[in-house]
Structure formats: C-alpha cells, structure tokens
Design a protein that fits this description.
By secondary structure, this protein is an alpha/beta fold. It folds into two domains: 1-37; 43-217, Rossmann fold, CATH 3.40.50. The protein is 39% helix and 19% strand. The protein has helices at 7-21, 24-34, 41-44, 47-63, 80-87, 105-112, 114-118, 134-137, 153-158, 186-193; strands at residues 71-74, 96-100, 122-126, 141-144, 165-171, 197-205, 210-217. The protein is globular and about 50 Å long.
Length: 218
C-alpha cells in the first residue's frame, strides 16, 4: 500500500497547478497548505463541495451578478465559497463576509483569502447565523448553503428583512444525522422557503443525494 502524499509534495503540486492554470485561488490554496492547513481541508475542497459552489457561482452570474452590497456567506466554514465568488470576473461583489460559529474557521478563511483581506474585500466573522440582525447589517445578498442543518428553515427566514436577496441550498440526504430540514424535491424546497420572488431554481443530482438551490428574494 502506498503512503499518503507528504504535505511538502502536495504544496509543490499545487504551486505547479497554480502556475499552469494561472488560477489565483489555487495559488492561495497552495499557500494555505504550505502553512498549517486544517485536517478537514480536503473535505472543503473535494469535488462535490467545489461542484456545488461552482454551480452557485455560475447561476448567480446569470441572474444576480451585481448584488447591491456585501455578500454574507453563512455557515461558510473555511471561506472557499468566498474565494470563488471574489475570483469570478462575471460578478461585481464589493465584499464577502464569511460567517461560521466555529471559532477555528476564521483564521483559515482569512489565510485562504489573504489577498482580499488586505484590500478590504473579505472578512471572517465568528457568529451564529440565528443571532444575526440583517436589518441592521444591510447586506446586498445572503447565502446559506446549509439549510438542511437548520431546525426551522421557515422560522429563520421569517427573521430576515422582506425583499432581502438570498441564495439558498438544501438537499434530500436524510441519512446524515445532523440534517434536520431536508426536502424531498425542488418543489418542496420552494414551499419550505416561501420566497416572494424566485430568480433561479434548480437541482444538482449527485451519487448519493440531490442538492437543490433557490436564488430570489425573501
């Protein structure tokens, strides 16, 4: 059995891929790997995680390319989606606020997005999404890709200002113990969210589950 790829070898490979593709996100990932990456970084960058985020970025570029204010990403983990949003040339985003209640995430997210931290376009916040006051914060867009983890999706949405632009994702993967608000279909997700306006609605099948996404207004 072959051993796992050493960290320094992975670092060199990622730097090579960054040079080959000229992709600044890959270069930022290489820099993070060269420092002290978290143990679950491979999960944050696996093909399913990146595929669902790529789907989100592409859809947003089609229907809401210029949110009128900062984009707040809730349950943002290591800031990967923020990095992808800020790297997308089709989007005009003044700032990403990356929110996660796990205090270990902020430093990783800021390391990954260090260029955007330096120019004021990225900041990480340790907070529970259930306690945020978006009427006071006045974001241009709120992104929640973890609706299945909430106890009460309609209840959470009811706390948000009317007309607030939203990107929401959920799935039908009920076998995960922490998934408490899964939906069986896209129509069920529409009904659960109860948005006043829908700009995009779609489903992304994967091997074990289907991910659903809505872009619209509260």
């Amino acid at each position: 059995m072959t051993s796992a790829l050493p960290a320094d070898a992975l670092y060199d490979i990622l730097r090579g891929v960054a040079a080959l593709t000229r992709d600044p996100v890959v270069a930022d990932l290489a820099r993070l790997v060269g420092k002290a990456p978290p143990d679950d970084l491979s999960i944050a960058f696996n093909h399913k995680q990146i595929g669902s985020k790529r789907w989100l970025v592409d859809a947003l570029a089609e229907v809401l390319p210029a949110p009128g204010g900062p984009v707040w990403v809730l349950g943002a983990w290591h800031g990967v989606l923020g990095a992808m949003l800020l790297a997308e040339p089709r989007l005009t985003i003044p700032q990403v606020v990356s929110v996660d209640r796990d205090p270990r995430c902020a430093a990783v997210a800021e390391t990954l997005n260090h260029r955007h931290v330096a120019d004021g376009r990225f900041r990480a916040l340790t907070a529970d999404m259930m306690t945020l006051d978006f009427a006071a914060e006045r974001p241009g867009l709120v992104v929640n890709t973890s609706c299945e983890h909430l106890d009460d999706v309609p209840g959470w949405l009811a706390t948000l200002p009317a007309g607030l632009p939203l990107v929401l994702q959920s799935n039908d993967y009920e076998r995960e113990p922490d998934h408490r608000s899964c939906v069986p279909s896209l129509d069920a997700f529409r009904a659960q969210a109860g948005l006043s306006e829908i700009l995009f609605a779609g489903a992304l099948p994967t091997k074990n589950y289907t991910r659903f996404m809505l872009i619209g207004r509260r």
